[in-house]
Amino acid sequence: MNQPWIDTSPKVSDEIRKTTCYMCACRCGINVHMKEGRVAYIEGNRDHPVNKGVLCAKGSAGIMQVNAPARLRAPLRRVGPRGSGEFKEISWDEALGLAREWLTPIRKSDPSKLAFFTGRDQSQSFTSFWAQAFGTPNYAAHGGFCSVNMAAAGIYTMGGAFWEFGQPDWDRAKLFMLFGVAEDHDSNPIKMGIGKLKARGARIIGVNPIRSGYNAVADEWLGITPGTDGLLILSLVHCLMEAGKIDLDYLARYTDAPLLVDDETGLFLRDDGGKTLVIDRATGHLRPFDEKGVRPDLNASHPGHRTVMQLMAERYLKPEYAPEAVADRCGIAAPRIRAVAAEIARVAFDEAITLDQAWTDFRGERHEKMTGRPVAFHAMRGISAHSNGFQTCRALHVLQILLGSVEVPGGFRFKPPYPKPATAHPKPHCKTTPDMPLDGPHLGFVHGPEDLALKADGSPARIDKAFTWENPMSAHGLMHMVISNAHAGDPYRIDTLFMYMANMSWNSSMNTGGVMKMLTDTDENGDYVIPRIIYSDAYSSEMVAYADLVLPDTTYLERHDCISLLDRPICEADAAADAIRWPVVEPDRDVRGFQTALIQLANLMELPGFVHEDGSPKWQDYADYIVNHERKPGVGPLAGFRGDGEQVGRGTPNPDQLKRYIDNGGFFVSHIPEGADFYKPWNMAYQDWAVGMGLYDAPQPYLFNLYVEPMRKFQRAAEGHGDRQPPDHLRDQIRKVMDPLPIWYAPFEDGHADPEEYPIHALTQRPMAMYHSWGSQNAWLRQIHGRNPMYVPREIWDSHGFADGDWARVSSIHGAITVPVALHAGLNGSTIWTWNAIGKRKGAWALDKDAPEATKGFLLNHLIHELQPPRGDGMRWSNSDPITGQAAWFDLRVKIEKMPAQHETDPDMGAMASPVGRGPRNLRWKVGK
User: Fold this and answer.
1) Phi/psi at 697 (nearest 5 deg)?
2) Considering the entire predicted model, what is its pTM?
3) What is the CA radius of gyration of the chain?
4) Residues 6+ apart with CB under 8 A from 539
5) Range 791-796 average pLDDT
6) Cα dihedral angle (379, 383, 385, 391), rounded to 10 degrees?
7) Which residue of 174, 204, 689, 885 is surrounded by the most CB atoms within 10 Å?
8) What's the rounded Cα separation, in Å, for the pair 535 and 675?
9) Where is the 4Fe-4S Mo/W bis-MGD-type domain (predicted)?
10) Phi and psi of 20, rounded to 5°?
11) Cα–Cα distance between 296 and 253 in angstroms, integer?
12) Neighbours of 523 (CB within 10 A)
């Protein structure tokens, strides 16, 4: 009778503004509920092609990003020593004027003195355009320390890779194998996909040293020894070839398996026009691979030549790849490996899918049906971030192709604008000219030694040594080597380091303590070794303190962004799609979107491409650029609502384009026509559709590369052939690792850290509720992950006598940390692990000095170094994959010992001053009445 009245249906919002989430890189659609002009609530957009309404903890917590106490408030100029965090707030006119004052002289004299590197932003087509206009060869984004092995291996092998390049056929796959994927990568789509698989009774096998997240719901978990994934995969290849369970028709039609390789040179046999040749089964004669009516012979005989298929059989049927030979190294019993291979074969061939869908291939042959091998794979950084990662990723793609499970129903499917062969991408450019743009795009795909980024004297043209003999196929650059090389003056000195959203003084660097010293080190004159540092971020991260000039970015709800087909679009396998962000709220601080700040700086400097001939600006801000920039006639950053608003893919700029996107929920979708949605690399209906969309200028059918001929060209150079040859100290390495067929070799740290002294593998992965360090200041997400222990498997736990509440000292050949430990039953027996990016430096992110992230959180980065230990040869060897330069984060070997419990983790890097001070102990606000 006396119960209080409760409003069970309160008003949620005054209006809903639809945009794109930025709490990770999934790019989900969100509905932002507004009350009185403020963000009240965020939910998933059910109409969005990526997440279809599903939203995770990160996405929901986006409201805390726009209210975070750690937000930077105005441009900053350093007034104290570098690293002190002592700044003076200045105006944007002063900030951009100072940047112009610093950058203009080096552009006029030597543009390579600028190193411009960006973190996990999603505007790389734009930032690379800016760097190219400036004229520096020194540009790249975060891929070199994240997953370039996966991306490059996929493109060189089959024209695309996992995640942003493609996805499993979630609706038809019957067996799904997941390698090395942490929960933060593509989390909503993968969770939704796994849900579909489970609902249909499909089987899931997880291959990962750590059983958490996705692997925890797998039907079978293979707790592999870190760094041995490639060996396991090649053993599966051995079993399948031994049993004859490979798709011979698929291999003959769509891959280089029937191409003829010269026994002496290792290069493909070509006709006078450069076309690769096969033997036609019907005639027994040499024919171009793409000639109409040709039936390539996988087992052809031609004097002095063998087919790729014959080379593969010769290699992978050797006993060294048998399960019995690899089991101990991989940590997986031989019968289990054979059982997995048998299951793959059974599902692929006994449970094949047939669709009654006609299609025509690039040879002009009509097929009445589409045959699917319903075995799908997915992999990410776990197999990529090793010094053998490129060849491991290649091995996985070769396994897919041998099964005939790429671009078929039930297998792996490309997302537009992929597939694209490596030859369709630009080659890297590095020619600098004072006061002029660079001679072409910075990043790309090399096809032989002639494409390396070398100066006339053979020295590296880039500060990170990308595209050199040290790492020839470094398609994403080596961001983790920029600071180390700039500090060492190797290959040369720079003047200005310009970075965006790259927390290089903390969780984004190996050798964290060493990097801090490099950023603050002075020469004999007392001048900083790296003279100037410009940095842009939205928050007071650890890196801000090391900048001389800070350009404050907006939060993602306050900005324009373009998730473009020119960059990292939101496409699905059945559709081309892109999206925008737009300011659903206006900033309450003196901040600007970084891309807008770059445009305004370019206008001040009158950079070519950004200004008209009379020096007047082409674009005032990033929104203006998104709408009106054309990369080539009719093709701009956004594919939707072009021209009169109804044109798709190609069309003149439409001044109402952004409004049309906003009205449509912040995204645009163009579905692939029925019959064009499979066999994309060879399906002429897809090729023609892609040309109409502006993805290609002309059809580009191609063969998958089981054998990567450009790698053989580098081997030949190391053997003494050609005009451009490697230095002597790199010849053996190139001969070994640049094998055109996938190989496995032990991670490099296995050879540096004595396995007797350092018997344990140590890994990090990011949790589903965090992404990089973006959630560091988020009040909701901190409640999920405010501290991190070192997780230890049962064998190590018992042998060291650990108990709940204990601490341990973990040591590598590079350093040591003292941290809390916890038991984890789902681990490879020789592996320990922890969450990444939870630990914070005292004073950063507006956190209290006693915040758990700073006292009970820690980084494994202190144990890792960007350089390998000295070999006694006077060389600086990067701790990277020698093919792509990918940072070898996961090669780490350690030892562990029990320690008395501590109040705080070690090392303690000391507290830093914060330009935004400390946040309140309790964060409260009320939205609306």
Assistant:
1) -90, -20
2) 0.97
3) 27
4) 68, 70, 71, 72, 776, 777, 845
5) 98
6) -110
7) 885
8) 48
9) 14-70
10) -120, 130
11) 7
12) 9
Euclidean distance between CA atoms 213 and 184, whole angstroms: 10
Print burial letters for 745-758: b (CB count within 10 Å at least 16), e (below 16). bebbbbebbeeeeb
- Residue 670 has a CB neighbour count (10 Å cut-off) of 18
From the list 39, 41, 45, the residue with the least C-alpha distance to 66 is 39
Query: Residues 549, 583: contact at Cβ < 8 Å?
Result: no
How far is 641 from 668, CA to CA, in rounded Å?
Answer: 8
- Please state which CATH number belongs to domain 750-899: 2.40.40.20
pLDDT exceeds 90 at position 926: no
- Tokens representing residue 883 in the block: 């093919």
Phi, psi of 803 (to 5 degrees): -140, 165
DSSP three-state, residue 878? strand
Per-residue pLDDT band at 777 (split at 50, 70, 90): confident
Residue 773 pLDDT exceeds 70: no
Smallest CA-to-CA distance from 670 within 641, 707, 708, 631 is with 641
Burial group, residue 288, by CB count within 10 angstroms (0-12, 13-18, 19+): middle
- CA 610 to CA 624: how far, in whole Å? 12
Which among 924, 766, 776 is positioned nearest to 847, based on CA atoms? 776
Q: Is 772 left (phi over 0), alpha (psi -120 to 50) or beta?
A: left
CA 117, distance to chain mean position in Å, is 15
707-733 as b/e: b if 16+ CB within 10 A: bbbbbbbbbbbbeeeeeebbeeebbeb
180 close to 383: Cβ distance less than 8 angstroms: yes
Length of the chain: 929
CB-based burial, 637-650: b 16+ in 10 Å, e otherwise: bbbbbbeeeeebbb
Extract the runs of DSSP E, i.e. beta strands, from 568-722: 575-581, 667-671
Cα-based distances in Å from 113 to 110, 137, 375, 494, 544: 6, 9, 49, 4, 21
802-810: long-range contacts, CB 8 A cutoff, minimum separation 24: 802/898, 805/901, 806/898, 806/899, 806/901, 807/898, 807/899, 807/900, 807/901, 807/902, 808/896, 808/897, 808/898, 808/899, 809/896, 809/897, 809/899, 810/762, 810/863, 810/894, 810/895, 810/896
327 vs 318: CA distance, rounded Å: 15
Tokens read off for 726: 């490697």
Phi and psi, residue 83, nearest 5°: 95, -10
Give domain limits for the chain. 750-899
